[in-house]
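Newbie here. two chains, one complex. Structure please?
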Amino acid sequence: MTGTFVGMPAFPTAAREALADTQLRHNLAHATGVIRGKRAAVVGEVENWEDLRLAGAAVKDRALRDLDEQLVRLEESLTARGAVVHWARDAEEANRIVIDVARAHAVDEVVKVKSMVTQEIGLNEALEAAGVAAWETDLAELIVQLGGDLPSHILVPAIHRNRAEIREIFLRRMGEVGRPAPDDLTDEPAVLAGAAREHLREKFLRARMAVSGANFAIADTGTLVVVESEGNGRMCLTLPEVLVSIVGIEKVVPSWAELDPLIRLLPRSSTGERMNPYTSTWTGISPGDGPQEVHVVLLDNGRTRALADDVGRQALRCIRCSACLNVCPVYERTGGHAYGSVYPGPIGAILNPLLKGTGDPQTDSLPYASSLCGACFEACPVRIDIPEVLVHLRSKVVDSHREDRIPKPEAIAFRGAAWAFADERRLGRLEKLSGVAGKVLRRRSPVVGRIPGPGAAWTDARDLPAPPTESFREWWNRTDGGKADG
Amino acid sequence: MVTCVNDAMFPGTGQAVVRLLRRLGVEVDFPQAQTCCGQPMVNTGYLDEAVPAVRAFTRAFEGYDAIVTPSGSCAGSARHQHQIVAKRSGDVGLVAAVAETSPRTYELTEFLVDVLGVTDVGAYFPHSVTYHPTCHSLRMLGVADRPTRLLQAVRGLRLVDLPKAEECCGFGGTFALKNSDTSVAMGTDKARHVRSTDAEVLVAGDNSCLMHIGGMLGRGRAGVRVMHLAEILAATEDQPAEVAR
């Protein structure tokens, strides 16, 4: 299990359910609309935004091209500064490393910085099974955790909740795991944030161990970078004695200089801010200041598989800004849960199959969860051509079924299309048949109301024009290219 | 290139293109060997199945100065996907043929504005119209304001802004069937925005998107007509557009 919500159905089924959730639809349309507007405004004021995108993509491409060397350099730099570097092939290995560190220090709780990678590997669940409580300290992650819920957005994981629901969750659950919410809690955002702050403060001051991810890892110096908005990350990264950071191997950036375009692209693309509020950087251990035991877990978990895919590897440039989610017309309507993964939206639709490989029906449905409108590519700060990768992954899904003993009806249909489109005479004969059908149907109505079978997916909600009595081809031949047409 | 959808379902659009281009002094031919650009297969993942269509395309359009099509999506397919299909086929002859045809393929408004250098095509269409920029023409080809410049020059036409115009209508080829619920949810919003303009006609440069939006408007008995841009640009005082189809 890596990053997939257990037992999720394929996208079309999950989407159908999500689309019927009126509260979700309303929350999402509002929230994505607000973020879209903010992003558009701050991106619009950067004159050389396209150059910045190109620079950001180039930095990530360079790092990925020499990934092996960059990682070894990162390890050397980190080790030289007193950090302990671990390598984890998959989720299980990474979780085991964190649990071992927790056991070595006999802690029964850790505070957490918001991190996608720890969700990808299911760290909280693994820690819980080992008797260690993991406290999410990012406000939205706290809401998701207290609500016994799943994140539905990369940046704003509780985007599917409104403030009335959040008040409910705080009142009901905070007391069970720590300082309760005040009885007179209102649904004012500042009041809710105040309750979270007081609830979390006691955990920050008590916890002896913290777990984080990293937005970037600078190979040159061994510096890790965490970008956040609430200051909770800064608390986790400085107060506890022990810090474990789990870093996907694609997070490596060769040098400080090359961090520059990325750190400028990220806030404008994600939160719609010109500059990020809290940017924490740390380089191994600083004697007498901050955690005195620092572990870094370098995680593969499918990334080398993605790297081996010549079209798909561009997805490893992703800096988790979530701009693609906010502009996606599919995501805006279905929300994140329908994607069945901690990585939802357009980037999730390519990242999940790239990390896990095709073969599972849920994963295989994700590349099809897009109308290929291209809004994601346009918004992506590191120019990941998501539609290109989606189409590529669709071909991988199809290719994986080419040896099926009983082909799917769709495969038979497309083989038929290939046959018809190979030769215009075949197509012409089919058009003649369609013209006959058109003559019959048009006697009743110019539109087809409802048809049975797979076509019902169209006509359940849309009219379909009846075929014309004459195709263009027939018209052209009958009228000598239109010249004989009155 | 008339496109398979227009050939089989919307012959009026192809006829309009022929009329319009002839009026502008272009020598127009319809090479019989054309079938489909291959996009339905490619976008569903059936790359091998797209090879015959791409082969037919290169055979049909060999030797012409320009390949003009009333579809942003099919032009995008010829320009951006044919090479992927050709490489997959392993046929170096096809790779070379695609390198010839791809750069000569134009979406209709690109051909009118960039190649012929016209925005006023002498059309007459005395109706209120709202324009939906299709995703592939907008983001894959970058046609920008070419279609609206052409529409603004049409005599009698009143162009009304479509709210959230650049948002996808939800068609997306086989997406409309494989994810019909999401497709319909997107189409419902698009239809709502179209109706909010009170325009008589919704116009776009791609009949496949129009089949979806028009199908939703029609099912809702919205009383809004959908038309391909070519049919408006072909209409004149002497040869007005048909009132209904």
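Moderator note: The radius of gyration of chain B is 18 Å. Chain B has a mean pLDDT of 96. Thread marked as resolved.
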